[in-house]
Specification:
With 626 residues, the chain is an alpha+beta fold. The protein folds into 5 domains: 168 residues, P-loop containing nucleotide triphosphate hydrolases (Rossmann fold), CATH 3.40.50.300; 81 residues, Beta Barrel (Elongation Factor Tu (Ef-tu), domain 3), CATH 2.40.30.10; 111 residues, Translation factors (Elongation Factor Tu (Ef-tu), domain 3), CATH 2.40.30; 124 residues, Winged helix-like DNA-binding domain superfamily/Winged helix DNA-binding domain (Arc Repressor Mutant, subunit A, Orthogonal Bundle); 118 residues, Arc Repressor Mutant, subunit A (Orthogonal Bundle), CATH 1.10.10.10. The chain is built from 19 helices and 34 strands. The strands form 9 sheets. Strands 2-3-1-4-5-6 form a 6-stranded mixed beta sheet, with helices on both faces. The protein has a 6-stranded antiparallel beta barrel with strand order 7-8-14-11-10-15. It is elongated and about 120 Å long. The two termini are 58 Å apart.
Length: 626
């Protein structure tokens, strides 16, 4: 069974015991800042390993509870798979408890456990009152059926039961997508002496491995993952659902910030205009007005912008979904389905949240037609959903498409018969669009290669694949190349790929000098000088000589006896026939010298060349014709 990785979050009101509970579960104090120790509240996100076996690995995020630290709270819960909602027995549900519940709902987090902490401070009757209070607050939320656990972090009551419940719950849950493109929203940036820049975050999807080339988006900075750590232990890879610290080369700490996103591909969309579906909080304190400034929290990114409605000018109270648009002041990285939170910058409050319908929003007219168009886009036809998934990943298997499109298997297979989709390698799908795009790119690249290297048979296929692998999957590139070779668009000679109509040739500016070189080589027959002398005599520089030598040899115009001595092609083959007709089935060096009239200086390399070509075989002091 493939190992699965999860991150859980501790959420709840300030001073309800989240950090103490985390410590009781993990034996790690996640309050690390001096200010946190002094004020006894969590300011930054705290992390700790909870549990690991051969089947599963679980990490914990301790989320700040104070309303001033709501930004860090959102950054933390945006990457979690299960929430432990912490409520103190001596206080019950408080304002931040309710706000955290709203945020968890908007972020689409469905799995939860309620931990009633500090139970040693109150009697059992009071605990029952608190429990009823919590049940009332949870009614109508995704947590209304969440299990309750009574715990006390100091005496360790209920800690074992809570830990076992977390493990059992997650063992029945699917982990995040580890097969898609790697994405890690950065929530911490720091330096380690002697190592350089390190970023930390929760891997949203995909995997990353040491040495991998990555991008910092939306800045577009190229970096390399020098080292990876998971909970302070070196790791060759980090997987979706894991907390990871990645040591990056090629970038300084000052160039990065929380909210940047580390990705493995450029195919993620960077945008400033996003079509969204939102819900507002149950109790709005103030009106939400058309084009009102908002603060968007998506992943670990926090950015200002404005909300644009197409069917209203304000929102007083709304229980249903609102289709609208966010126009942002700065670029963000986003994809369809990403969850987010909206807050009012002043006075500060959470006003709603939702999910991204289309990260590539345009300007639309106010009116019902735009709402209808957004509804269609929101629903997305099966074909549109398949196309969107392939546009992002370039290539997906059937199981990956089922997961990313949420389509019924029969519907998906029916749609995949469309000519816009191509099955290759017997198991992966791509778009016809990409096949054409890759072919055009290959043609452009080979044309440029032939222009730069007219004497070479073509570009080495391995180098061609490596050069284009940053943009397309290797298997897809290989499929297009082989397919176009079969269809005579490309030609292959050994490992070299060329355009079908390309013929290797000597460039015009060296053609005459090459003719002179060959004429001189032909004139000298079997008693030639070093080939380097001929190049020098013909006025051909060293920068051209190597490619020209390879070309002349591949075309059969010259035959190299060794690294220095060459014969004109026709002269060599005539000499071979003369020797064959002048000897029997076997012959010695002396006989060959008499037939060809050559000294030992030329004769030995000549005979060794015959052996190398498989024309003769040396048996003790004799050569045997094959």
């Amino acid at each position: 069974m493939e190992k699965r990785y999860f991150t859980i979050g501790m959420a709840g009101h300030i001073d309800h015991g989240k950090t103490s509970l985390t410590k009781a579960l993990t034996n790690i104090d996640t309050d690390r800042l001096k200010e946190e120790k002094e004020r006894q509240i969590s300011i930054e996100l705290g992390f700790a390993p909870l549990y690991e076996d051969q089947e599963i690995q679980i990490s914990v995020i301790d989320v700040p509870g104070h309303e001033r630290f709501i930004r860090q709270m959102i950054a933390g819960v945006a990457g979690i798979d299960l929430v432990v909602l912490v409520v103190a027995a001596d206080e019950g549900v408080m304002p931040q408890t309710r706000e955290h519940l709203e945020i968890l709902k908007f972020l689409g987090i469905k799995n939860g456990i309620v931990a009633i902490t500090k139970i040693d401070r109150v009697d059992e009757d009071f605990i029952e009152l608190v429990r009823d209070d919590i049940l009332t607050e949870l009614t109508g939320t995704v947590f209304e059926d969440a299990p309750f656990v009574l715990v006390d972090s100091l005496s360790k009551k209920g800690i074992t039961e809570l830990k076992e419940l977390i493990i059992d719950t997650l063992k029945q849950q699917d982990m995040r997508d580890a097969k898609g493109a790697f994405r890690l929203p950065i929530d911490q940036v720091f330096t380690v002496k002697g190592q350089g820049t390190v970023v930390r975050g929760t891997v949203y999807e995909g995997t990353v491995e040491e040495g991998q080339l990555l991008k910092i988006m939306p800045k577009g900075l190229e970096v390399r993952a020098r080292q990876i750590q998971v909970h302070h232990k070196p790791a060759a890879k980090a997987y979706a659902g894991q907390r990871a610290a990645i040591n990056l080369s090629g970038v300084s700490k000052e160039e990065l910030e929380r909210g940047d996103v580390l990705v493995s591909t450029e195919h993620f969309i960077v945008t400033k205009v996003v079509d969204v579906a939102i819900h507002v909080v149950d109790k709005l304190e103030h009106l939400i007005k058309q084009r009102m400034p908002i603060k968007l929290h998506i992943g670990t990114t926090e950015v200002m912008g404005r909300i644009v409605f197409f069917d209203r000018n304000e929102v007083k109270q709304e229980n249903g979904e609102i289709l609208c648009q966010l126009r942002l002041d700065e670029e963000i990285l986003a994809k369809r389905g990403d969850r987010f939170i909206l807050r009012r910058p002043s006075p500060q409050e959470t006003i709603g949240g939702g999910w991204v319908i289309d990260p590539r929003g345009n300007k639309y007219r106010f009116g019902s037609q735009t709402i209808e168009d957004l509804k269609k886009k929101q629903a997305g036809s099966p074909k549109e959903r398949i196309t969107a998934a392939l546009m992002e990943a370039k290539s997906l298997t059937l199981s990956e498409l089922l997961k990313q499109t949420s389509l019924d298997e029969a519907v998906l297979k029916e749609q995949l018969r469309d000519e816009e989709f191509v099955l290759y390698n017997g198991k992966e799908y791509t778009l016809t669009l990409f096949i054409r795009e890759i072919e055009e790119d290959l043609i452009d690249r080979l044309q440029e290669y032939h222009l730069q290297h007219p004497m070479k048979a073509g570009e080495n296929k391995a180098e061609l694949l490596q050069a284009m692998q940053k943009r397309y999957p290797k298997g897809l590139l290989d499929f297009v190349i082989e397919n176009r070779i079969a269809n005579h668009v490309f030609n292959r000679k050994e490992q070299f790929v060329s355009l079908a109509d390309f013929v290797p040739h000597v460039p015009k500016n060296w053609a005459k000098r090459t003719e002179n070189l060959l004429a001189e080589l032909q004139r000298d027959q079997l008693k030639t000088r070093s080939l380097k002398d001929y190049f020098s005599s013909a006025g051909i520089p060293d920068s051209v000589a190597m490619d020209l030598k390879r070309f002349l040899e591949e075309q059969g115009l010259i035959v190299m006896l060794d690294e220095q001595v060459a014969y004109y092609g026709t002269v060599f083959h005539e000499a071979v026939e003369k020797l064959r007709s002048g000897t029997g089935s076997e012959f010695e060096v002396g006989e060959a010298k008499e037939v060809l009239g050559l000294s030992r200086k030329y004769m030995i390399p000549f005979l060794e060349k015959l052996d190398a070509l498989g024309l003769t075989k040396r048996v003790e002091n004799q050569r045997v014709w094959k």
